[in-house]
Design brief:
Layout: H1 2-9, H2 11-37, H3 46-78, H4 83-96, H5 98-117, H6 121-136, H7 142-153, H8 163-187, H9 189-205, H10 211-214, H11 228-241, H12 257-260, H13 309-325, H14 329-337, H15 347-359, H16 369-382, H17 387-400, H18 407-422, H19 444-458, H20 462-468, H21 498-509, H22 514-521, H23 541-554, H24 559-568, H25 570-576, H26 580-593, H27 598-610, H28 616-623, H29 635-676, H30 681-736, H31 744-761, H32 770-786, H33 792-796, H34 802-812
Helix pairs in contact: 2-3, 3-4, 3-5, 3-6, 4-5, 4-6, 5-6, 6-8, 7-8, 7-9, 8-9, 8-11, 13-14, 13-15, 14-16, 15-17, 16-18, 18-19, 21-22, 21-23, 23-26, 24-27, 26-28, 27-29, 28-29, 28-30, 29-30, 30-31, 30-32, 32-34
Length: 813
């Protein structure tokens, strides 16, 4: 009765009761909000906000210590751009509660071990940097930090491990020194000198043959494209020469020095770097992108030199902001433009350089390409008076250096520029690029302009492109994307397949069945048959030509019409393409009818792969065929090839995942049956039936995986064999004609080969068998041995399994 009476008399009592139970959650949410937002814009100073927050957290430690520890460990890992803000906060808490400081250090070490175990190497860098900055806040003792660094550098002495493993541990140590180098040198100068000596020795013996493959430009002028560890080492050397004086890192803990220096310090728990594992995925090497120097920003603050540590700190912080906020372009742009200390540097130049540096990073950018486009658009909107001018200056510089630019980077430049123009009414000073009109159309500049206009047409329409470009650029304007139908009334009536094309067209319009249309197609003569009347039924190119030309002509109105037509007559298309020749010919027909519409070709080929009308190997053979030789350097060709490779790999990964899940399910059922003991016979029989079905499913999936891997291997071997044939033919032609082999076509072909190989070996190295990788490496070696570009295999293998590297490299030597 009392419960009912309470409810009847006052409904608010229940609400009050709910508020009381949710109060701890509300407090935890409030704590998380306070911690995450500290350091953002506020009417109060950062120091007063930190002091106030430290007081709040100290008061809540008795009840919410674990929650506070989790939040602080998370922000150390996920908000590296506010590193010093949070180290100061931890320092203040440690000064007030020594035990909490110790627990936090232990929690950070546990989290570091976990991130390394899970291959989260970028986050591990932030955690170590956070720990190193705690030395400045008198939370961690300097000798303890030096020991950790020494353990990291000891990895360089390991044998039979990939170079990228040693690189990462050395990078972690060097990247922490701008924050903590001065403090460590004051306390442990002898040990630090020895540590830097070991690093210098390692850097001198490193293999760096991978660098040319990762450089955006082949030319070293006006800005050298340095390998990331070499550049960072030069910056640290200059910092040491300047007595570790750095002028850009925000250090709020200086204001609390009198409080922090009284705090007791902690020693780091013993930490040994985890050993190398075959499935470890270390960050791959990269090259530092340089576009601007102090001469490019004549007004306002001076841009730091390329070997000044301030340049590293600024770029690192901007990269961190982008990594944290890349999903929200508006937030990301606002955070970049509100960068602390922006009045002391030419911020717009730094932002543009960092964004292009990520966009052009080889072999893959950190985020999807379109993110950088939308981010630059948002930045232009927020800073309309200054940033568009810097972006235009950068675009002009990129255009001027196209001759030495990597082909993959040119592709990304084309896609970015066309997308960017489409958001600003395609306005551009095209006359400034009139120099490309006097060049051979195979040269990079006219090819770039032509591809940009074609991409722009995809985002607009043909007449708009004609209107925005000066008449002098008419040779570079893409053709009107109209359908080319050879069986039309005017010119096609004399062709052998014309009568059947008319019949097929009428049948489709009258909604005839597939069987009726196949009956009509039997009347098509086979040009390959000649007198032998039985052997020609398997492949009739004219039959495919008549049917597909007619079908696509009727469906030429839009993408949707074309997709619907392929779906509706899928059975006929499958019947016509049973042989490899049939698959190849159907792709030739798609190109013939849509040769002026590359986007339509790309989407139709994609659709045909998805619906299994053609397979991936057929697409590769078609793209490398003699019929497509004149289009070999066009961007849409490589978009189709890359899309085909991605589909093949995703297909293999999907089936492998299904197989692993089925095996796990079977293992769980068997484990459950063993644990159940003497249950009833009926339940046992039911479980055994389920296990039998699972075993059959696993067997079927195993067959599917083997079949898919075989297709994958065939695709990769086809691609690289075709590259070998093309390059060999080029070499023979050049030697016969006494011509230099280094033509624009050759540069394009070699860089496309590198692009595809990196795409296969690095992005999908976990999905390929060692034997397949070995086959691919040996094929590439044949090419590079022939063309005297040795060292490619060794540099590319730096990211692979050590045993495989040794095996391949020994063979190559």
């Amino acid at each position: 009765m009392s419960r009912r009476r309470h409810s009847d008399e006052n409904d608010g009592g229940q609400a009050h009761k709910r508020r009381r139970t949710s109060e701890p959650i509300e407090i935890e949410d409030r704590l998380e909000s306070l911690i995450c937002r500290v350091g953002e814009k506020s009417t109060s100073s950062l120091e007063s906000n930190l002091e106030g927050l430290a007081g709040v957290l100290e008061a809540d430690l008795p009840n919410y210590k674990n929650k506070i520890l989790r939040i602080l460990c998370s922000v150390a890992r996920l908000l590296p751009e506010k590193l010093t803000v949070y180290t100061t906060l931890v320092g203040l808490l440690n000064a007030r509660n020594y035990n909490f400081g110790g627990e936090f250090v232990e929690a950070m070490i546990r989290q570091l071990k976990e991130t390394l175990k899970n291959n989260l190497y970028n986050e591990a860098v932030y955690l170590v940097r956070f720990l190193s900055d705690l030395v400045n806040c008198h939370v961690i003792a300097a000798p303890s930090m030096v020991v950790l660094f020494e353990n990291f550098v000891s990895v360089t002495q390991e044998e039979d491990v990939p170079q990228v493993r040693s690189d990462w541990f050395v990078y972690v140590v060097l990247s922490c020194l701008p924050w903590v180098g001065k403090e460590l040198y004051e306390k442990k100068d002898v040990e630090m000198d020895r540590l830097l000596g070991q690093i210098e020795g390692y850097l001198k013996r490193r293999v760096k043959t991978h660098v040319p493959m990762l450089q955006v430009w082949t030319a070293e002028k006006p800005h050298p494209q340095e390998e990331y560890l070499d550049c960072l080492w030069a910056q640290i050397q200059k910092l040491k020469k300047d007595r570790w004086q750095e002028r850009h890192i925000l250090r709020p803990y200086i204001a609390f020095d009198s409080v922090l220096c009284e705090a007791l310090q902690h020693n780091l728990p013993p930490f040994t770097p985890p050993g190398h594992m075959p499935d470890a995925q270390y960050p791959i090497p990269r090259v530092i992108f340089r576009m601007f120097d102090y001469t490019d920003a004549p007004e306002g603050p001076v841009m730091p030199g390329s070997h000044s540590v301030e340049r590293f700190v600024i770029e690192e912080n901007l990269h961190c902001i982008m990594k944290t906020h890349w999903r929200e372009r508006k937030t990301c742009a606002a955070q970049l433009l509100s960068y602390p200390g922006k009045n002391k540097i030419p911020l717009n130049y730094h932002i543009v350089e960092v964004i292009f540096g990520e966009l052009f990073q080889l072999p893959m950018p950190p985020q999807i390409d379109v993110m950088y486009t939308t981010l630059l658009i948002e930045l232009c909107k927020l800073q309309p008076g200054s940033l568009p001018q810097v972006l235009a200056q950068a675009t002009e510089m990129l255009y001027m250096r196209l001759d030495t630019m990597n082909t993959t980077c040119i592709d990304r430049f084309i896609n970015w520029f066309a997308h960017h123009l489409s958001n600003f009414q395609f306005r551009w000073s095209w006359d400034d690029w009139a120099d490309c009109l006097t060049m051979d159309l195979d040269k990079p500049k006219p090819k770039f302009v032509k591809e940009v206009l074609e991409k722009s047409m995809r985002l607009s329409y043909h007449q708009r492109i004609v209107d925005i470009v000066p008449p002098t650029f008419s040779a570079l304007i893409p053709a009107d994307p109209i359908f080319s139908f050879k069986y039309d009334d005017e010119s096609g009536s004399s062709l052998p397949g014309y009568p059947v094309s008319v019949l097929v067209s009428n049948a489709i319009k009258n909604r005839a069945s597939n069987e009726e249309i196949l009956t009509i197609l039997k009347e098509v003569p086979n040009p390959n048959q000649e007198e032998d009347d039985d052997e020609g039924e398997t492949f009739n190119p004219l039959k495919i030509d008549v049917f597909l030309q007619t079908l696509l002509h009727l469906a030429a109105k839009s993408f949707s019409h074309s997709f619907s037509a392929l779906g509706k007559f899928h059975e006929i298309l499958k019947a016509l393409t049973e042989s490899d020749d049939g698959k190849l010919h159907i792709l030739k027909v798609v190109y013939e009818v849509w040769r002026n519409h590359p986007q339509m070709i790309a989407v139709l080929v994609d659709k045909m792969i998805r619906t299994q009308i053609v397979d991936c190997a057929a697409v590769a053979n078609w793209l490398f065929s003699q019929d497509m030789a004149h289009e070999f350097t066009r961007l849409f060709i490589w978009e189709i090839l890359h899309s085909t490779i991605r589909k093949m790999n995703k297909h293999v990964q999907k089936i492998q995942k299904e197989l692993e899940e089925a095996k796990e399910k079977l293992e769980k059922q068997q484990h459950k049956r063993r644990d159940s003991g003497d249950d009833e016979d009926m339940e046992k029989n039911s479980e055994e039936d389920d296990e039998g079905q699972l075993e059959e499913q696993i067997e079927r999936l195993q067959e599917k995986v083997e079949s898919a891997q075989s297709e994958q291997k065939n695709l990769f071997l086809v691609i690289f064999q075709r590259f070998i044939m093309l390059l060999t033919e080029h070499l023979v032609r050049c030697e016969t004609g006494s011509v230099d082999i280094s033509t624009p076509w050759y540069k394009n072909c070699i860089e496309r080969l590198q692009q595809v190989f990196l795409m296969v070996s690095i992005t999908h190295i976990c999905t390929l068998s060692n034997q397949l990788l070995l086959d691919l490496f040996l094929l590439i070696f044949v090419v590079y041995a022939t063309f005297s570009i040795k060292g490619f295999i060794k540099s590319t293998c730096l990211t692979g399994a050590p045993g495989l590297v040794v095996k391949v490299w020994d063979y190559a030597r």
